[in-house]
Amino acid sequence: MCGIVGYVGSNDAVDFLIAGLSKLEYRGYDSVGLSVFDHETILTRKTKGRVDDLRKVLTSRPLHSATLGIGHTRWATHGEPSDLNSHPHGNFRVSIVHNGIIENYRQIKERMIRKGYSFSSETDTETIAKCLDYYMVQKGEPLKAISKVIEKLEGSYALGILIKDTPDTLYAIRKDSPLLIGLGDHENYIASDMTALLKYTKRYYLLEEGEIAIITKDSVRIVDCEDFLEITKEEHYADWDEESAEKGGYPHFMLKEIHEQPDAFRRTITPRIIRNTISFERDNLDDRTLASIRKFYIVACGTAMHAGMIGKSLIERYARTPCDVVIASEFRYQDPIFQDGDCVLIISQSGETADSLAALRLAKQAGVMTLAIVNVVGSSIAREADFVIQTIGGLEIAVASTKAYYMQLSILYLLAFKLAALHDLLSSQELADLLHDFQHMEDVARDMLNQSGNDQYLASLYQGVKSMFFIGRGLDYGLALESSLKMKEISYIHCEAYPAGELKHGTISLITEDSMVIALASSKAIVEKTISNIKEVKARKATVLLVVRDDVEVAEDAYNQKLTLPSYPDVFMPLIEIIPMQLLAYYMAVLKGNDVDKPRNLAKSVTVE
Ligand code: M6R
Is residue 609 part of a domain? Predict the structure, then answer.
């Protein structure tokens, strides 16, 4: 999705903006641009394409001596990716960069056309720029003009603003789209994402709705947008180091993050396991609150939702607490029937996913308890949920989520075991035994990573495949969904995930000798049933990769290739099985020459509906 950076200081603003925009590339974008003050004149350079394309534009049309500017990476919503639709938008008087969507932009645009303005782009953003210009002319004063614009806008926005009359000042506002103000030494910054700032500062303010930030090289003032009274802000500190935003010797962030999973797992679970018991006290979540939950709605999108599906199986099995897993974009329009004791559990890596945030707000409005599992501290979901359990494994940069999924699963295991213990469904000894095996998964994950050669080999066999089915039962079906998503989003191969027993109710008609089926059979309790289903597809001449635990004998004619997993209790197999599936997707994408970390059409954090 779109990204914003801004700089005011004594150094070269263009250098900062280009470096910051490069750090935001991971979010997914299709065009890029910047505006700076050059000798008190606003100058803009923008282009369709990547940051490298902007560098070329800057080589042919250089900008000198700018110490204040704004930059943007655009992920097209209103209008195709093009030079004209790229941000910044504005004129000689104002320039803005915008993340979010203005819902009433048509009305504003018509009004501005009536006032004599003409438009050169198809974007909603240009209407904000024209509106701001209009109010600058009317009011002659930046704060009054910005305040008027805020009054007119409906929808979501984070805006970085330059105004010709104040060539030493950067302005920023936001609503429902993140924006941070980085605090430096004789220089200050704005960014939609802390990753862009880590190299320069770790100190920041969170800007809130209804506030206007007035930022110069030596000061940051935040005022209320109605009466311009000064607001005192709490200073935050980002404890992520810059290294987590670097590849650290790996060819791709995705591979680095797959390899970081054992560490992330340990860092996430260790502070919550105390002498063979589980405690969420560090998350301010006491036992009484947890024990009062009668039902969970697990609400999330994409990979986070897939983690929720595994969570549902675990919580229902161990704690016998019913769970519904609902895709956030559906939940928000479903008019759910809430009852006493319900808890809406939002799972989100970024904490900014628009649909998940809307679901959270819906639950809060209904007076239902909300709990969030979030990776990004200070994100909207983390700030708005009643309770937050933070995953602790550092930044996730690759669009394809791997480490975040692993950390989300880790918390869900702890939650299931904790609830079971609270409801007396696990004895202390049973809990201690489970925790012992659970903690051992860190070593098993490392072993799985050491076997990545198998995945490279399999990827070389399958690189020509046009379509794949992932099948499994129970927890393996949850894994099939996630494995299929990983494969399709980065390898661009059409994939479907199916419960193995459901195939014969229709979809098996698609299985021919050209089909590739990845059959997940890690669960000992139902392995025979799954193998029967595998035989059904094999009989229809599909190529089968069997992913199976090593304590199960399977006749050789049931598969074409086999990937064996070390045998552990069924409940822990998802933590083992997901690793080769992530690696297989990764190596397929690499062999196909795809942009692994920034797959086409995708964005890291989906902040639009
Ligand atoms: O930041 P979130 O966890 O809320 O993001 C949810 C999904 O957009 C995300 O998991 C997406 O499906 C992944 N990029 C897939 O790898």
Answer: no
